[in-house]
Amino acid sequence: MLEVKDLSIEFLDRSSPERVLNHLNLHMEPGEIVGLVGESGSGKTMTAQAVAGLLPGHAVIKSGEIRLNGQDLLHCTKNELRSLQGNEIAMIFQEPMTSLNPVMKIGRQVEESLRLHTDLSGPERKERALKAMLDAELPNPEDLYYKYPHQLSGGMRQRVMIASAIICHPKLLIADEPTTALDVTIQAQIVRLLQKINRKYETAILFISHDLGLVRKLCSRVVVLCDGDMVEEGTIEEIFRSPKQDYTRQLIASVPVRTGTPLRRQLHE
Ligand SMILES: Nc1ncnc2c1ncn2[C@@H]1O[C@H](COP(=O)(O)OP(=O)(O)OP(=O)(O)O)[C@@H](O)[C@H]1O
């Protein structure tokens, strides 16, 4: 479904151009959940932004191709890209407060993609928005529909982002550190919610995280990035039981130890 081949990206705003992604290859099957892991600065967000067509203006694609169901995302027109964004590919971010409009009611924000991609009437959009909010396990969607982001907790704001991301039933959901700003209990709930959405709508999920514990719970396959290079790729079992690279071993070893649970047991849970 998603095929990234030989993707290299540079930033041109530095005195010497800096390459932030080197010949990346990544593929995803329909309905698959793939983890993208690596330290801060390894290129995870750049990969996500390239796939979603959201790279900053001074980022230059030096080589490669990105295809979604065969469609060439790097050479499609702006209109073609716009019709894919929110419709076929949707993205959720670490901090929903920066993506949500603080002065727009929740309901309108959840409906945004329907406004862009469909001719549905106001009442039809509202019905779909309430359903997406229920899918995102938001309590009392009728009330929330008329509230503003600042009236919600961080966990609920992330659920609002998820509701607006899934409202058009995208084939690919890119989740860039979606739980990092949340406390541990809410993190687990969001991971379960992503699992539920994946099963219900067969949405493929590219899950970006530095938390290998969460990646292990959610994903079936992992791609490991280091300084813009893909250093390892494999199933969850392969990566966690017999990582080939020292870098991967170090990443696994840096999984935070939960109180009272030895690291080795955590990894085999
Ligand atoms: N807007 C930008 N302009 C210039 N360089 C950037 C920009 N955004 C990111 N970079 C550089 O690109 C490289 C990859 O960054 P990226 O954000 O993809 O890393 P990451 O793995 O997502 O890190 P994190 O886990 O901290 O989000 C880094 O060296 C970073 O400094």
Structural summary, described in words:
The protein is of the alpha/beta class. The protein folds into two domains: 2-88 and 171-268, Rossmann fold (3-Layer(aba) Sandwich), CATH 3.40.50.300; 95-169, no CATH class. It is 40% helix and 24% strand. The chain contains twelve helices and ten strands. It has helices at residues 44-52, 78-84, 96-99, 106-117, 122-135, 141-144, 154-166, 184-201, 212-218, 236-241, 246-253, 263-268; strands spanning 2-11, 18-28, 33-37, 59-68, 71-72, 89-92, 172-176, 204-208, 221-226, 229-235. β1 and β2 (18-28) form a beta hairpin. The longest helix is centred in the last third of the chain and has 18 residues, at 184-201. The radius of gyration is 19 Å and the shape is globular. It binds adenosine-5'-triphosphate. Residues 11, 13, 20, 38, 40-46, 56, 210 line the site of adenosine-5'-triphosphate (ATP).
Which properties best describe this structure?
disordered C terminus, Rossmann fold, 12 helices, four-stranded antiparallel β-sheet, 10 strands, 269 residues, binds adenosine-5'-triphosphate, alpha/beta, 2 domains, globular
Structure summary:
By secondary structure, the chain is of the alpha/beta class. 40% of the residues lie in helices and 24% in strands.
